[in-house]
Amino acid sequence: MRSSLAALLLLTCCCAGAQTAASELPPPGAAAQPDTAPAASEATEAPPAPALAAAATEPPAETCRSLSDKAMASDLKALTAQAQKQDLAALVQLHSASAGLWTRAVELCDGRARERAQRNLAESQQANALLNAQLGDGPECSAAHKDAVTLQDLARAALAERRWGDAATLFHKSEDMWDLATERCSGAQKELAAKRQEQSEIDGFNAEFCAPLFERAREQTQKLRASSAGMGREDKQEGLMVAETLWRNALAQCKGSAAQDSARNNAQALARERGTPWVARNPLPAPAASPAPKVAALAAKPAEAATAAKVSLATPPQPLSPLVPAATAPVHAATPVATRTAAEPARPQAQPEAFTVGDMHFKGQFVRDVDTPTFTGTGKLSWANGDVFEGHLQNGKREGKGLFVWGNGQRYQGDWVNDASTGRATVDFTNGDHYEGAVVNATPAGAGSMRYASGDAYRGSFQAGLPHGTGVYVWKNGQTFEGDWVHGKPNGRGTLHFANGDNYEGAVSDGRPDQSGRFTWANGDSYTGQWKSGIRNGQGTFVWTTGDRWEGVYENDQQTSIGTLIRKSP
Question: What pTM does this model have?
Answer without folding.
Answer: 0.43
